[in-house]
Amino acid sequence: MKKFLRDHGLWVLFAAAVISVALAVMSLFSTTSSPLTNVANTLASPFRSACTAVADWFNDKQNYYKDTTALEAENAALRKQMAEMEETVRQAEAALEENKLLRELLNLREQRRDLTSDLEAATVTEHTVTNWTSSLTLNKGTTHGVEVNDCVIDETGALVGIISEVGVNWSTVLTLVDTDTSLGAKVFRTQDLGLAQGNFTLMGKNRLRLDYLPADCQLLGGDLVMTSGLGGYYPSDLVIGSVEEVQVDDSGAASYAILVPKVDFDALTEVFIIKSFDIVT
């Protein structure tokens, strides 16, 4: 070492002097930090950037969690509010349906005073249509005074069918097109009398027959057919349907008509059961 300093000492001193002067000049003309500080900061800068990125990522995740939690709470509150509103709407709709039913019932009673105001509103709970039967199930039974052979009508007073079975809180209605349905009928325009009854062939077409008409009857398509009320078994003047076509039976001694029911059985939701009526002569 001594030998090195002895041989090269002047050069070392010269180099140190040059470096000192250079650093002094850089410090004088630099607008930034001192060279040593600048070097240190340059080396530390990547680490500071990494730390900042990690901190920013953590803050973003924390803010996302807070926002997500707040959003979930807000959505839960909105779902609860929507459920409450839907329940209110359902209650309002139920009230409107009940009011509509009561108005229809009142209107029927006003129109048909011969029904003695003894009408029972009922809801259709089931529609049954097979190759052998066409029926409806209602939510009213013996506890409501319903009996077998009671007539069932819609809100317009048109005939739906006849009660065939009754339980405690249910009943079965055979519709007009069922093969077991049969009742006296008359044509409103001509006053021709006949027997309206279900027909196996016509039931699938939602039609029924009006039998035992005079061979020379003058029925026209669209003629209104109503219950005759003869015998006192059923109320008179309940609309059954309208004439679609008239044909002569095989014997040639009588005619029969194909009838289209006034009621759309598939669309029924509410009906009225006639529990008693006045016989009008």
Could you characterize what this model shows?
By secondary structure, the chain is an alpha+beta fold. The chain folds into two domains: 2-59, no CATH class; 115-274, Beta Barrel (Thrombin, subunit H). It contains three helices and twelve strands. It has helices spanning 2-29, 35-111, 200-203, and strands at 119-129, 134-138, 151-153, 159-166, 171-175, 182-187, 193-197, 208-214, 224-227, 239-248, 254-261, 270-274. The strands form two sheets. It has a six-stranded antiparallel barrel. The longest helix is centred in the first third of the chain and has 77 residues, at 35-111.
Which SSEs are present, and which pair or pack?
Blueprint: H1 2-29, H2 35-111, E1 119-129, E2 134-138, E3 151-153, E4 159-166, E5 171-175, E6 182-187, E7 193-197, H3 200-203, E8 208-214, E9 224-227, E10 239-248, E11 254-261, E12 270-274
Antiparallel strand pairs: 1-2, 1-12, 2-5, 3-4, 3-12, 4-5, 6-7, 6-9, 7-8, 8-11, 9-10, 10-11
Might you state the CATH topology name of the largest domain?
Answer: Thrombin, subunit H
Structural domains: how many: 2
Mean pLDDT: 80
Q: Radius of gyration from the CA trace?
A: 47 Å
Indicate the structural class: alpha+beta
Poorly predicted ranges (pLDDT <50, ≥5 residues)?
none
Helix content: 25-40%
Q: How many helices in DSSP terms?
A: 3
* Count of β-strands: 12
What strand line-up does the widest sheet have? 1-2-5-4-3-12
Please identify which CATH superfamily of the largest domain we are dealing with: Rod shape-determining protein MreC, domain 2
Give the class-level CATH name of the largest domain.
Mainly Beta
